[in-house]
Amino acid sequence: LREALGKTKIVWKPIPVGLGIGFLGLLQLYKVHQREKAAAEEEDRRSAASGYGDKDERPRKRKRIRPSGPWTVQLMSYLPLKNISRVWGWFNELKIPYYLRVPGFKLYSWIFGVNLSEVAEPDLHVYPNLASFFYRTLKPGARPLSPDPSALLSPADGKVLAFGTIEHGEVEQIKGMTYSLEALLGSSSPTFDGEPEDISASHKQVEKNTSLEEKIKADEEFANINGISYTLPRSHDSKSGATIVDASTKSKSSSIAEVRADLAIAEGKRSWLFFSSPKAPTGLYYVVIYLAPGDYHRFHSPVSWVVKKRRHFAGELYSVSPYLQRTLPGLFTLNERVVLLGQWKHGFFSFTPVGATNVGSIVINFDKELRTNSLLTDTEADRAAEEAAARGEPYCGYSEAVYQQASTVLGGHALRRGEEMGGFQLG
Amino acid sequence: SSIVIVFEAPKGQRPTFDQGYQGEDLKGGWQWSIKKGMKVKVGEALGR
After folding, report:
1. How do residues A1-15 score in pLDDT, each as one tens digit?
2. Average of pLDDT values for A401-425?
3. Residues with Cβ < 8 Å from A161, sequence gap 6 or more?
4. Listed residue (B7, B3, B8) closest to A154, CA to CA
5. Which of B38, B42, B44, B48 to mutate to test the interface with A (most CBs of A within 10 A)?
6. In this predicted complex, what is the ipTM?
7. Residue (of A104, A140, A103) closest to A121 by Cα position
8. Reported confidence tier of residue A127, pLDDT bands at 50, 70, 90
9. Are A413 and A247 contacting, i.e. CB atoms less than 8 angstroms apart?
């Protein structure tokens, strides 16, 4: 043995990269599992404290979505997509060695068709990892806005998958496959008013029969008198169950001015109230834009509008590739998404970024409270489902927040056309 | 990832016979300027 040990030549070899990545992936999965276990234990304690002593007596957790479809879709529904997405996000945040950054990003750009000449940062070494490169900004002026003031602008770089009118409350995903507007946006979307519950009847009365300027003035007076409801950073609307939040970033004064002007122009043509103008009959329209992996992944406001509510559907994280959109009916109503509801000059306006397995995190610049693809929101959704079950009510499937700002009298967060709203981040 | 925009817009009005209606489509309503499968970039007009 001594002879063998002494005479055997020791050869050092690097561990294969794949093995290293696999090990780190497993380690991350283990950590996620441990966190989930801890969260479940915390939930057990909380439920026990709330009177559900016996585990069997407790309402069951939110059921995982099991969509119908071909075997590939069935198989996919059994994959831990959210965990995969989180591991993918973590992996993409690992620092890439300095000298590998430029060739790595160039290879990525070549594969996915990224135009490097329009990237704001010419030195690719600045991006420490793929996640930061993926969320890159563009040079000023790289995306000129259409000069037509009446145009609906494209919010992102991508491909138009579908567009058209909404008939009988149904949106067509791909020819022959439809889903209801209510399933996509949540219930009662066209009739919301975005106001906290404690608005007085007189204030409502003022709103009904006045011009925009009078309404703004009334809003200002109302805000002065009832400042608490506008200035509290976080409160709860007991009627709708919505959380009232201050938009984290205040609307720019130019945005407020532009939205005000836009609404004032429309005011001459139609009533402020929804679906109430006899002169201009309106319809509901939709457009779906698909962002490929190489596309610029920040999104911008398509029009000047006021965002009043945010609804976060925890959902799942299926891929939203055109193949899956063809094969999985109602894909957008299954996936995690953030529905922003508001108003523009013609009435109702909604903007819905839909997450996918690789780009699980949706960021809204003016909403720092929003957490998507997070264990915390999953737990909150489970809790909400439990509470709804305990009350004997169906779970609505989303958490809601109402945007209020002390300085904004438009009743929400004003966005100018072309203004950056947020984006999609890896994992 | 995908973005779905749902919005309300004018349907347009059919001119009355008094205004010289000759069987044409609705006037002044929402008009798309895109096609299915078309590539678009931030800021391009999708409709007006």
Report:
1. 888 888 888 888 877
2. 80
3. A174, A288, A289, A290, A322, A325, B2, B36, B37
4. B3
5. B42
6. 0.82
7. A140
8. very high
9. yes
Under an 8 A CB cutoff, do A353 and B3 touch? yes
Secondary structure (DSSP) of A295-315: S--EEE-SSSEEEEEEEEE--
Kindly report which listed range (A16-25, A165-174, A200-209) carries the lowest average pLDDT score: A200-209
Structure tokens at A187: 């219930």
Residues constituting chain B? 48
Q: How far apart are the first and last CA of chain B?
A: 25
Quickly tell me which residue has 């011009």 as its tokens: A211
Distance CA A247, CA A369 (A): 9
Q: Length of chain A, please?
A: 427
First to last CA, chain A: 51
Tell me the residue ranges of DSSP E strands in A77-204: 152-153, 158-165, 170-174, 177-180
Residues 6+ apart with CB under 8 A from A66: A77
Identity at B26, one-letter amino acid code: L
Give per-residue pLDDT as tens, A184-227: 787 654 444 433 333 333 333 333 444 555 544 544 443 343 33
Cα A131 to Cα A361: distance, rounded to the nearest angstrom: 11
- A254, β-bridge pairs: none
d(CA A174, CA A330): 10
Distances (CA, A) of A46 to A42, A62, A241, A387, A421: 6, 17, 21, 12, 37
3-state DSSP assignment of residue A265: helix
Tokens of A60: 């069951």
Which residues of B are less than 8 Å from A287 in CB distance? 4-5, 32, 34, 46-47
3-class DSSP state of B5: strand
Summarised one tens digit per residue, pLDDT across range A336-377 is 889 999 888 888 899 999 988 888 789 999 888 888 887 766
Contact check, Cβ <8 Å, B8/A146: no
| Dist. CA A397–CA A79, nearest whole Å | 21
Which single residue is written with the structure tokens 């059919």?
B14
DSSP string, A8-69: SPP---PPPHHHHHHHHHHHHHHHHHHHHHHHHHHHHHHHHHTT--SGGGSPPPPPPP---S
Residue A232 contacts by C-beta under 8 Å, 6 or more apart in sequence? A244, A246
- Alpha carbons A327 and A329: distance in angstroms, whole number: 6
**Is B13 within 8 Å of chain A by CB?**
yes
